[in-house]
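Re: 3,4-dihydroxyphenylalanine structure - here you go.
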Amino acid sequence: MQDQIDTTKNDTLGASAAADFDVLTLEAKLLLKIETATDLGRLDAIRVDALGRKGDITGLMKRLRGLDPDRRREMGRELNSAKDSVRDAIEAKRAELARAEMDRRLEAERVDISLPPRPEAQGSVHPVSQVTEEVVAIFREMGFAVAEGPDIEDDWLNFGALNIPDEHPARQEHDTFYLPASGEGGRPVLRTHTSPVQIRHMLSSEPPIRIVAPGRTYRGDSDMTHTPMFHQVEGLAIDKSTHLGHLKGCLRDFVEAFFQVEKAPMRFRPSYFPFTAPSMEVDIGCSFEGGELKIGAGDDWLEILGSGMVHPNVLRNGGIDPDVWQGFAFGLGIDRLAMLKYGIPDLRGFFEADLRWLRHYGFRAFDAPTLHGGLAR
Ligand code: DAH
């Protein structure tokens, strides 16, 4: 191999300079170094020494200029081929070392899956997750699908499209968290309710529609029954002849299934929401005897949700013709439902991440709520 380079032919450079151009020897040396590299750091140092800006091969490349044209062409070819084979060798070695490193880690970090489980379970299902699943299970049985939307909305979807114009007092009532404007579209907000999912869904699908949309919602409010982040489930049903009677029947079925009572006393109170007309708030009959809350008995009332027939402007903003379609909507507070059903007095405990609280109120992971298998407890 060595005799492929005939340095005697070189007549522009002296013999010693020509010897510097012993490309094959340099290549062989580099390949040996690469072959014996034991880690990725060392391999990279070799790459820099050979191919980096001040590397051996790069240095020789620069000196080609001083050679006569024939010699330059010949040496150029050799140098390029050396460069290719050094680069290929480095790549191959890099893959080999990376594989070895992965094998070493897999061996070192191996987990013995035959170990018995810890005797005491550490975590459990949070009441908010449990109640969300329960609510969804009930509505799914009635033919509702689950829809979702993002926590960050623009103020058009959160307010404007829902028939709440800029100057509307409802905007103040919501204690909205506004985010810095991004320059395009409306002003971003942390959604103050799950109602914008109604608009998103109307815009992305054709009626008839039957959805529930659970999710996080945000308002600047904090006391025993309010936290800045809380949870709602939105409901929306649109068809050609959907009417208030359907809404009442649907909510009654829901309440009886959720609280597991035969016949719940319910009160539908006229109310006002900009996105529904007519609007109603729904109360459930209960008693607070001896500090204990009992659903479906006694003569106290507790408000559990807002609802109504979808306002024609809202349908229009969702791209649906209000002369053909009509529907109902409702919004439930999940945290509130959880407090009522499981007797949890203070909402703030929900979000303090205290394991003792969770052990007290939490649910076993295997108790997935279904209507046929039982909702919980
Ligand atoms: N978005 C309302 C709120 O957070 C709740 C609500 C009321 C939702 C009536 C609805 C509805 O869909 O029809 O206060």
